[in-house]
Amino acid sequence: MGRWLFECQAITSTNSARSGWTLPVRLLLRCGDVVPLPPKALDVLVVLVDKRGMLVSRDELVSAVWPDTFVEESNLGHHVSILRKTLGNVDNGQPYIETISKRGYRFTGPVRQAAVDVQHPNGDERSECQPDRAQPSKDSPLAPILHALTEVAPIESSVMSGDGATAVLSIPSSVAIPTHASPLRWLVTGALLGLVLAFAVGWLVLRNRAMPPIVAQFTVVLPPGEVLVTPGQASAAALSPDGTRLVYAGSRDGLSQLYLRSFSELEAKPIPGTRGAMSPFFSPDGQWVGFRQASKLKKIALAGGDPVTICDSGGLLHFPSWGSDDNIFFVRIPTEGIVSVPASGGAPRIVVAVDRGKGERRFLSPVLLPGGDAMLFSVVKESVESSDDASIVLQSLKTGDRKVLIEGGMGAHYSPSGHLVYLRGGALFSAPFDLKRLAITGTGVLVKQGVLVSPVAEVAHFDLSSNGSLAYVPGASIGSKRLPVWVDRDGNAQPLPLPPRAYLHPRISPDGRQVAMEIESPAHNLFTYDLARGVLTQVTLDAGSHRPVWSPDGKRLTFSTPRTGRYIMWSIPADRSGPEERLTSIGFGHRASSWSPDGRVLAFDDNDADSGAGDVGVLEMDRDRKPRPFAATRFAEGSPKFSPDSRWIAYSSNESGRNEIYAQAYPGPGPKLQISIGGGTDPVWARNGKELFYRNGDNMMVVEIRLQPSLAPGKPRVLWTGPYARGLSSQCSPAGATNSNYDVTPDGQRFLMIQEEEDALIATQINVVPNWPEELKRQVQQEHIP
Q: Model-level pTM?
């Protein structure tokens, strides 16, 4: 491959001989230091740099990096996103990797190619950043020998110690062995070479005695078609206390499942009985895995057996952790206090309550410190929009005394190296911590960049085992920069004149004059946007409103909120002229999706089922207002939409093994027809009833429809292609057979889409760093933050 140089960065390739095999090694270096990158991301960079200045299509990149393997296009976008975060910008402010809309990517930075030069990662590449090449120290035991041997035209060789130090041995040509040498010259030459070798070996042995253990890392890659449940209420992955096993929540076609990966085995295995589970965590002895399934907290023995219900949380369950006292702690919403329950089962009790009088909104990530007498957690105040601005606090469980340890961060864990590790802005920081005095004793230090975090949903995707091993999902700080974008039927895009925020679920009013949207933050609320006046107005104030749906007359907004401890459906005048109305008090996870045109029936997503798969329900307003199932099977159904004549409900289901769009007669019984071919989510009817739109990956699909005398769908076709947010696509839950994240104008000519940071929510791998405390100690010594 050679070596490519751009600014102080280099991509280099050499060979490494291990166990008798010669293996290619490729590295990205910055000022001589290895920049950690997922292997496939580095492969993508190699292809782009090799074709620098030229457009490289998405298909070409996928074919080059994943030959003979089916890979979703989103996986490519995820790796490009990692590269952009890693490389930064060229001097002119432009990113190194340019996206060519709907076509591919181009590497734009200046590049020069150098000859292959086999060097240590911390060696000569530093010359790209430092004008003077480093020389052996005068205090090195090799210095006198090197000085004595230095002459004109030396022959250079290098000796490297395990910590990267390099001694350059310059053997002059005058002592090189001649073709016809006398025995005396052979003897002198051998003595000199033996002396040099003895000093070199002795020097390295002395240095290596003080060397810390080698810190390596490896990557757990999910199978094709499977993604991590990175939205949610806790990290998608957890390490066992001894650091030998990993449990994670993976999702395929929107349905989650827990998987266990033992590091002594090559593949992860599904944990039976955990379909629909999220937020996994280990027991202190590593024999059990706890998890959340709908509103229930459960556990399952890894030795085998059925899941055991510990409790019904009585609300939404966030950030569960299993303490050394055999109590499980979690944050419960809407009370948003920290709750504990015995792992053997029982009634949850509040351990720490939110104090509204002090401006506290909620708590995050409760973790017991060793000994079990004190707890770490984060406090989010009413005034902040991002948990990056939360306070990390320590509270005594004996006295109730609390003190702030760190301003600005979340997800704090204690490391056996004697540090608190926490996350801010997509990076891990470490601060020295005295476990006896329960106090921070030094300055915070940046120790790991590129960790997936949602400062809006307040979830940090990393975990530390009891022995200090680290597992993290590579990525960046996500979700706070989205834009509503108009897209016409040819795929041309024009953003609304709004600042970037975490917009979600745009819904166009029946008259086409307003848009209702949810804006995610630690306080989720609904807003309306007047398209003519350009005014954004907040409608709800409860800090927990989700998924707006216009009533057919355009006067009210229906939404879901957990203010009673369960997600049930409410209604409010869109102009805020009257009070809110609760539509039903029955159910746990009901989220409005579509009104029948006469306003008598509300179709909704029903997430009450223990399986977590999701069903479709209906609420008849002119009867007893008791929800009843419409499509309820062991598969995942969602995003129900009434046809304009009220006789059909279109929805997404994975009953065939992947998500497809179906239309089922309402109220039934009656036919059920498959509409999509080759996959489909997020159905939306044209308001004249002549077309049905849906998403298939980045493709906007359209099907011509005839409603009379009976439903007659045509053949699906691609209308346009664009990388816009799909499915639920929020930071609270994974995308799948859930509510559509776009809408269509009344005339069917434009689509209101959500443009998100590129594939920010797609995560397909977990990095594991065993023996991380050694690396942590080294970095803390080198990289202090002023």
A: 0.60
